[in-house]
Task: inverse folding
């Protein structure tokens, strides 16, 4: 018998399948992790099939060295999924398998020794002859089984005593696997009586689950419309029919509050996977799934690989979130696409949900590719009252502070009423755009329609897509004002100003700086929820999952920061963010108020946010996408070239550009293809490495996949690194 093995080496022909002999007596199964001889060492490999025949000369085939775990890591469907991933994302087969495999697998299970009493009556003579042994048995009569370490500690005894008891057969000592992590069990919650729209959604999806067919839904429900209750009841149905469910949530909304909602319904049938877990803990959660100990997994991106044997349902909460895409490591997969493929392979049902679906998803829903389910009403409370303030007007009236007069007076009122306020400042990220303080004008690229980025070094404005450049202006071309300049504010500035104007206010800040320590995120959240502060200032970390009844005011310091990210999705991001943020106000009985400050009050993204009208936003945005041929009307691919010498990086980027052009010119089919660049990447230098990019747009994703393959297998100077991302989410 022979095994076909994918070996863990990274070189251009690693998709090659290697054949090994299965030694006599080795109980090898498909999907096992093995150690195999390769060149003159042993390396790790993954068995993808077992056959009786081979086309290789049998005497040249080496033996499998050993099996690494006593179970199979991948079932056939997971191997199938990995195959799909390697082709779809253009990575090595081994990389795809390793992505599916749990981190921490090499650590293995954690086992402890357990002692169990093996007799019902303690022999009398023991009392006198071996009082210590008697004491142990006496204790075990009350408490057995018990961990050996605990027993030894409680009774303060030697291991020798245990040994002799074991020898006599009075007790049994054995090993048991323990879990390093477990969710806290809490009081059980009962299913709620569903509202009409919820009921309709549950009934529809339930029908598909009963049919055992692959089906895709988009649950489009405003914030607070009870989507989570829909998930809970669908999962319940799924479990009742003997199947399992995966719920994906973005990292930032995997708050204690979210976890509580699932655990209170399903108790210890839930495993949780978040990035705060150690590799060992993650592995244990994976084992719980593998061994059928749990029926539900709630987790971040890679929970999509939870190894359920009988998967019935995958739910993707906040499907528009960018964290579902792995963009820092290969394969640059998107958990949404993987979920879709997995559901297809397993005949499961996929439910994507959002209050602000991504343009791509909603577009597919309008084309019938996803079935649309709608929840249009907030359950307990009304929508907050949203007001937009034009900051140019404030300036014209002599107010140079970062707070408009309206926001200022609302904060003051809230402090007096002892109600809480959230002040939201979208992360600056790499945003460094220029704007006119008088009319709101922002210089944009004539080719790509994205905001130009201000480069401090040479005082030029640069487009990160196509490389277009112009000199920084000193007057606004629209209104002639001289107040055209770089715009940027940080959370610290907001905090300082609040303290200056409201010295008595108790303020908390939540951003990357204040949440570095493990658990600090939770602490700030609980402190704020329990009323230990009046005002919370934060970045998008606070835009989700915060359900705090006493928050009645949300202020958005400057919507323009997201609106002018050098990214074709900047309007979409702004609408999503403003909607999420607005959803934080008025969760309780008291009505909520939202103040959005901006220099661009006429922008459709701001107007649609004001009226909380997604479809209105979608209808505008989709027109712009079509005109500039951005997704969903094309696929993008981003090739980033990095190295230590900027000139060299630039030259290679130019070569990559030419090569892409050559390939595109030779294409037979006349699909729309466009190559942009080379241009400096939005973050031009990271860790002393310069970065330039070439961006491709194509109607035909296969064209991009072909180019990706060629670009990745080309030879480059030693120091140069190439990173390719198909369908990138931040670009
Ligand atoms: P979403 O996930 O859409 O933002 P949630 O699931 O958080 O909305 O629901 C908002 C609130 O409404 C929650 O407090 C939830 O407990 C409550 N809720 C949801 N469904 C019902 C229902 N059918 N009856 C009563 N309350 C409900
Ligand atoms: Zn102007
Ligand atoms: Zn451009």
Result:
């Amino acid at each position: 018998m022979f095994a076909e093995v994918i070996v863990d080496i990274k070189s251009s022909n690693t998709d090659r399948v290697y054949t090994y002999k299965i030694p006599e007596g080795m109980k090898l199964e498909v999907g096992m992790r093995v150690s195999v001889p390769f060149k003159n060492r042993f390396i790790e490999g993954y068995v993808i099939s077992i056959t009786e025949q081979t086309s290789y000369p049998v005497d040249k085939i080496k033996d499998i060295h050993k099996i690494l775990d006593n179970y199979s890591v991948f079932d056939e469907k997971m191997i199938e999924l990995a195959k799909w991933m390697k082709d779809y994302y253009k990575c090595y087969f081994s990389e795809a398998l390793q992505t599916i495999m749990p981190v921490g697998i090499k650590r293995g299970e954690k086992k402890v020794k357990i002692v169990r009493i093996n007799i019902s009556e303690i022999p009398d003579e023991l009392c006198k002859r071996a009082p210590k042994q008697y004491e142990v048995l006496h204790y075990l009569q009350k408490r057995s089984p018990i961990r050996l370490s605990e027993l030894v500690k409680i009774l303060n005894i030697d291991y020798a005593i245990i040994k002799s008891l074991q020898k006599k057969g009075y007790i049994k000592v054995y090993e048991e696997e323990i879990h390093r992590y477990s969710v806290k069990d809490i009081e059980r919650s009962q299913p709620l009586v569903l509202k009409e729209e919820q009921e309709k959604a549950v009934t529809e999806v339930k029908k598909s689950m009963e049919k055992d067919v692959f089906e895709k839904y988009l649950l489009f429900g405003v914030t607070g419309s009870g989507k989570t209750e829909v998930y809970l009841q669908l999962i319940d149905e799924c479990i009742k029919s003997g199947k399992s469910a995966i719920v994906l949530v973005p990292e930032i909304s995997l708050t204690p509050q979210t976890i509580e909602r699932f655990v209170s319904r399903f108790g210890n049938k839930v495993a949780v996977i978040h990035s705060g877990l150690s590799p060992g803990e993650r592995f244990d959660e994976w084992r719980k799934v593998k061994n059928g100990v749990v029926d539900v997994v709630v987790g971040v991106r890679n929970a999509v690989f939870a190894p359920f044997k009988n998967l019935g349902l995958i739910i993707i909460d906040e499907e528009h979130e960018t964290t579902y895409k792995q963009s820092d490591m290969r394969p640059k997969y998107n958990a949404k696409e993987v979920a879709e493929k997995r559901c297809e392979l397993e005949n499961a049902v996929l439910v994507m949900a959002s209050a602000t679906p991504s343009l791509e998803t909603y577009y597919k829903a309008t084309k019938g590719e996803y079935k649309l389910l709608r929840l249009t009403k907030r359950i307990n409370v009304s929508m907050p009252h949203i007001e937009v303030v034009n900051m140019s007007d404030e300036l014209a009236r002599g107010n140079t502070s970062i707070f408009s007069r309206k926001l200022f007076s609302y904060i003051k009122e809230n402090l007096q009423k002892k109600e809480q306020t959230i002040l939201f400042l979208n992360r600056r990220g790499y945003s460094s755009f220029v704007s006119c303080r008088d009319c709101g004008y922002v210089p944009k690229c004539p080719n790509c329609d994205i905001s130009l980025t201000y480069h401090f070094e040479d005082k030029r404005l640069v487009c990160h897509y196509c490389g277009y450049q112009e000199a920084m202006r000193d007057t606004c071309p629209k209104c002639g004002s001289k107040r055209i300049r770089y715009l940027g504010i940080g959370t610290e500035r907001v905090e300082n100003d609040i303290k200056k104007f409201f010295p008595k206010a108790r303020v908390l800040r939540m951003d990357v700086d204040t949440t570095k320590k493990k658990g600090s995120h939770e602490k700030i959240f609980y402190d704020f929820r329990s009323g230990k502060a009046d005002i919370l200032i934060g970045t998008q970390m606070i835009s989700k999952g915060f359900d705090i009844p006493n928050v009645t005011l949300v202020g958005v310091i400057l919507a323009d920061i997201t609106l002018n990210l050098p990214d074709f999705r900047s309007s979409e991001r702004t609408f999503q963010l403003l909607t999420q943020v607005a959803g934080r106000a008025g969760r309780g009985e008291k009505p909520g108020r939202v103040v959005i400050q901006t220099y661009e009050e006429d922008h459709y993204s701001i107007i649609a946010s004001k009226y909380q009208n997604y479809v209105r936003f979608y209808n505008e945005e989709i027109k712009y996408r079509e005109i500039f041929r951005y997704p969903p009307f094309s696929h993008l691919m981003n090739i980033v070239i990095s190295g230590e010498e900027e000139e060299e990086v630039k030259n290679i980027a130019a070569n990559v550009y030419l090569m892409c052009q050559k390939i595109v010119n030779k294409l037979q089919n006349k699909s729309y293809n466009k190559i942009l660049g080379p241009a400096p990447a939005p973050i031009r230098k990271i860790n002393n490495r310069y970065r330039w990019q070439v961006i491709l747009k194509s109607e035909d994703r296969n064209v991009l996949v072909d180019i990706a393959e060629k670009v990745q297998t080309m030879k480059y100077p030693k120091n140069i690194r190439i990173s390719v991302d198909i369908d990138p989410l931040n670009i």
